[in-house]
Amino acid sequence: MSIRITIDGNEIITQDGATLVDVAAENGIYIPTLCHLKGKPCLGTCRICSVRVNGNVMAACTVPVSDGLEVEVDEPEVSDMRKALVEFLFVEGNHNCPSCEKSGRCDLQALGCELGMMVSRFPYRFPVRIRDHAAKRIWLERDRCIFCQRCVQFIRDRETSRKIFSIKDRGTHASIEIDIELADKMPPEQIREAAELCPVGCIIEKGVGYNDPIGRRKYEIKSIRERALERKRK
Amino acid sequence: MHTEVQTILEQYHSDKTRLIDILWDVQQKYGFIPGEAIMALSEGLNMSCNDIHETISFYHFFHARPSGKHKIYLADSVIARMNGYDEIREALEQACGCTFGAVDESGTFGLYDTNCIGLSDQEPAMMVDEVVFTNLTPKKASDVIAQLKQGRDANQIANPDGNGRRDVAYVDTLVKGNIHNQGPVFFKADRDFKALLEKCLEMLPDEVIETLTVSSIRGRGGAGFPTGLKWRLGREAEGDEKYVICNADEGEPGTFKDRVLLTRSPGDVLLGMIIAAYAIGSHNGIIYLRTEYRYLKEYLEQQIQGFYDQGLLGEQILGKAFDFDIRIQMGAGAYVCGDETALIESCEGKRGTPRVKPPYPIQQGYLGMPTCVNNVETFAAVSRIIEEGAEWFRTMGTNHSSGTRLLSVSGDCQHPGIYEIEWGISLNEVLQMVGARNPMAAQVSGPSGECVSVEKDGERVFCYSDLSCNGSLMVFNESRDLLDIVKNFMRFFVDESCGICVPCRAGNIDLLRKIERVIAGRACQQDLDEGVRWGKLVRNTSRCGLGAASPKPILTTLEKFPEIYQHKLVQPHGALLPAFDMDAALQGHELAYKALVQEEME
Predict the structure, then answer these.
(1) Nearest chain B residue (CA) to A89
(2) Quick one: CA dihedral B168, B172, B174, B176, positive or negative?
């Protein structure tokens, strides 16, 4: 069913029940995302797509649109909230962009640039997180995990559909875990899929490092905003 | 071990949605959940070992390593701390020969802290294995340990008369009821459940729902969703099966009224569930009981059995074409499971992580089917509404808050315990009723609610549009250190955040650090301003009610008692913030330098 909503005052005609974050992108309005993957079940973990919907702050990846919705994206207070959430992630783990294999193709780094983050307003925690390189072809760099749950939900053992990646403990003690036996069974293309799915440099394919020179890396060629709009525009 | 685990699995038909029950049985057998058992479960359930660890490590009461033959959990709540928690802690450490968070050398005792265990009217209190000990003194606590050392089990010590666990006398031996007034709705004696259900089944399901809609009852868990509307949606929802779940995961610090309802009036609750099942068209019900109320389990099972024996549960209830069963699902220790979607995840054997909404449980809940989740008190009240009629209920309370509700009162008052109040009563009236002594502040709805000033807010009334209370009321007198209480509440939220979303996982820690900074006398005005802004951020962007509420201890005390914060602030000198600790920073450099030198030498 065709419905009308407004985003930042612009009237948009779309389909009832479509996901707000996709509707916005299809209409050229960028809402930053970190955990969202179009066409996959909603994870709703990063909250970076927070916007105002009829006055209330909601994560746009969790909102099915309905007629008459009034959405504010480019509003100072909620824009600052999105930026603050990115800043939280930078202090919660240990993110050292210059030495990271994912630099230039990392979603978190790209969002930091996109949202104009110069420094985090929150105190740095410098947590001690032990990296795990026991798997034959995967390097788990826990310092960089942002607990988006993409790998947990979407990468499964192809034979048994068991979880390869999982979360241990809860809250601030949580850590990302990898099942070595199952990881060692992963075919090369699935390893690549997992590494690409990871929005940060936590899941790294061993033997593959800085494969693109500075200046020609993913988000240097085209920004995260341009890519999001290009991918989703009708 | 493999065959033993196999036997447990068979009991649950190797159904992974029963993982919580399976893990409880394994832990019961071995004292903890050994790696070898996890491997056997992994094969039997077709889950990776890490996947099973996801569930184990989420819950406070599951242990993946040896944790003591006797596991002792001392409730660390604001109320316990007002009543001698520190002395009990010390006495336990001395008696057990180990510190908290550890196991003694012989492996006999494991000492653990735990959040509110629903006994705020009789604290300090501790759980030992499957029982609880209340109104502790250091002597009483040491005495329990001494008896355990002599080989008696916790059950024998707590229940010396040997009451059967299915008997209410057993529960009464362990904990007090402390009901202080008899209101119109709850705790009615000698109810004829059979006659009442007959009356209900003569109505059409739509008429039952209409009765609730007219009564204007709203959910008693805290959110206040209209019960009639929820059930209407449940009736209209499409699904091969529908479920009714009673939320008995009473985790909000300071509340214990559900414990008393389940003890004194379990039939009211069961009947309310049966009425719900009839109204929405469900055949299966679950009571999700928090581990902290483990001692109620056999008693409740007996009550459920009594309903089966009377033909009020089971197949063809009272001769009608209406089947309904109820089972008890034990929790395993997670406050966030009070959220209905987290509770459903937990019922399915998973981590208690709140789901993304929509869809709402009433559309897609337990096992993806329409699920009606209501609070213990809501079900009990429903059974009375069907008995006395919608008008009877609606004439009580206020326009938008009909009927009465139960308050669990604790803290600085003469008679902590359970009170039934009509909505519309003022805070001052309640404080007088409970014998509050020089009250300064009242914490309405626990940490996730509001801290109000008795002086400024005494005339405010309990109702959904003003003091919308979820049942917890803590009274603090003038001698109490509110900042310390706020710190305790913030630590509670940090402990209990599931960590699925960024703002709640990361933000609550920063808020806790802010309040610690204020208490340490190292905060300036900037810290308070940031506390408010960050609090608003966490409240607005978090995924579930926990994060939406967690900054409230700071925000509401800052609003009502700004002077206690101002009093603690310091003026910054020069460019450095008062929070910057020069000595610590230099010491940090020293340590880092030494570590680097050492690394180089190796």
Answers:
(1) B502
(2) positive
Test B356 with A43 for CB contact under 8 angstroms: yes
Structure tokens at B283: 């055949």
Domain range list for chain A: 2-74, 86-221
Peptide bond into B358 cis (omega under 30): yes
As a whole number of angstroms, the distance between CA B244 and CA B527 comes to 46
pLDDT confidence tier of residue A234, bands split at 50, 70 and 90: very low
The CA–CA distances, whole Å, from B327 to A18, B244, B262, B298 equal: 38, 11, 15, 12
Question: pLDDT below 50 — which residues of chain B?
Answer: none
**CB-CB contact of B472 with B32 (8 Å):** no
Q: Could you say which of A64, A122, A166 has the minimum Cβ distance to residue B50?
A: A166
- Pull the structure tokens for residue A221: 């060629």
Give residue for tokens 């008692």.
B561
CB nearest A172 (choices: B54, B494, B537): B494
**Which residue in B357, B502, B513 is closest to A46 by CB distance?**
B502
| Domains detected in chain B | 2-58 (no CATH), 70-158 (3.40.30.10), 193-394 (3.40.50.11540), 406-480 (3.10.20.600), 482-602 (1.20.1440.230)
For A154-165, write each residue's pLDDT tens digit: 999 999 999 999
Q: Cβ distance B276 to B374 under 8 Å?
A: yes
Q: What is the DSSP string of B120-176?
A: GGG-S-EEETTEEE-S--HHHHHHHHHHHHTT--HHHHH-TT---TTSHHHHHHHS-
pLDDT on residue B599 = 76
| Pair B352, B59: CB distance under 8 Å | yes
Distance between B507 CA and the closest CA of chain A, angstroms: 7
Tell which of A88, A91, A180 to mutate to test the B interface (max B CBs under 10 Å). Answer: A88
Q: Which residue of B has its CA nearest to A17?
A: B358
Neighbours of A42 (CB within 10 A): 18
| Architecture category of domain A2-74 in CATH | Roll (3.10)
Provide the CA A7 distance to its chain's centre, in angstroms: 22
Whether this prediction's pTM lies above 0.90 is answered by yes
B39's tokens: 């491997």
The pair of structure tokens assigned to A193 is 């899929």
